[in-house]
């Protein structure tokens, strides 16, 4: 998972990143609230870890931006030295999902992160070779997808892209995130390749703008969203 960390103390930020990355996550560190807000506008972050006292915009202001301005539902965990009960209540009432105090207790912190991710992204926790998402069955052994009595073979990149989009259906997913997940990088060449792969998936998996059940829609200047036409199909 991709986790955004708002922390202005370099040594603590490094320590938190090590905890998360050793658990298999990818992290980006922001040492002030304004830079994190800018990142939210151009990328897709799975979970936010916020310190309260940081320059330019506080963690609470960033939380309010996430919930009230961007309307995002991604989980938010506070990691802060503010231990007063009223601070905890204020953060939770503003939309935080959990609250962890400093000094950090690594095992407890990681357990809280894991619990939030497990509850928020149930479609991404299944490690079986065969996955069923939105009535599409993904077979990781041969990169194939089965739906509506059709058996479609995909290339490795097509399969990774399709599965990630289905695992994150109804979410706005940035181009940067898709290129990182599928190609492990970014750039003009990869950006063009992404658009080509999206076009192929629309045809192969019936995700075009006129498709009756699911549509893979572009979000201008940001990325793509896989959406159900009339409510989410049965999983």
Automatic annotation (TrEMBL):
DNA-binding region, residue intervals: 128-228
Listed SUPFAM superfamilies: C-terminal effector domain of the bipartite response regulators, CheY-like
Lineage: superkingdom: Bacteria
PROSITE patterns: OMPR_PHOB, RESPONSE_REGULATORY
Occurrences of domain Response regulatory (ranges): 2-117
UniProt xrefs under Pfam families: Response_reg (PF00072), Trans_reg_C (PF00486)
Coiled-coil portions: none
One Gene Ontology term, aspect cellular component: protein-DNA complex
InterPro entries according to UniProt: CheY-like_superfamily (IPR011006), OmpR/PhoB-type_DNA-bd (IPR001867), Sig_transdc_resp-reg_C-effctor (IPR016032), Sig_transdc_resp-reg_receiver (IPR001789), WalR-like (IPR039420), WH-like_DNA-bd_sf (IPR036388)
GO biological process, one term: regulation of DNA-templated transcription
Domain named OmpR/PhoB-type: residues: 128-228
Name of protein: DNA-binding response regulator
Native species: Limnohabitans curvus
């Amino acid at each position: 998972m991709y986790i955004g960390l708002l922390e202005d103390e370099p040594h603590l930020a490094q320590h938190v990143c090590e905890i998360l990355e050793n658990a298999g996550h990818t992290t980006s560190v922001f040492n002030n609230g304004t830079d994190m807000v800018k990142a939210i506008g151009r990328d897709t972050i799975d979970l936010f870890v916020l310190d309260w006292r940081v320059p330019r915009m506080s963690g609470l202001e960033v939380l309010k931006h996430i919930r009230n301005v961007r309307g995002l539902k991604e989980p938010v965990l506070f990691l802060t030295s503010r231990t007063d009960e009223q601070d905890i209540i204020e953060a939770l009432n503003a939309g935080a999902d959990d609250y962890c105090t400093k000094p950090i207790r690594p095992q407890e912190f990681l357990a809280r992160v894991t619990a939030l991710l497990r509850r928020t992204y149930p479609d991404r926790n299944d490690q079986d070779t065969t996955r069923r998402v939105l009535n599409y069955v993904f077979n990781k052994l041969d990169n194939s997808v089965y739906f509506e009595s059709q058996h479609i073979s995909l290339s490795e990149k097509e399969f990774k892209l399709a599965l990630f989009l289905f695992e994150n259906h109804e979410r706005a997913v940035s181009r940067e995130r898709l290129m990182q997940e599928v190609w492990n990088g970014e750039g003009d060449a990869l950006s063009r390749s992404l658009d080509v792969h999206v076009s192929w998936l629309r045809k192969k998996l019936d995700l075009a703008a006129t498709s009756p059940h699911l549509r893979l829609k572009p979000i201008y200047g940001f990325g793509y969203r896989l959406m159900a036409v009339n409510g989410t199909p049965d999983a």
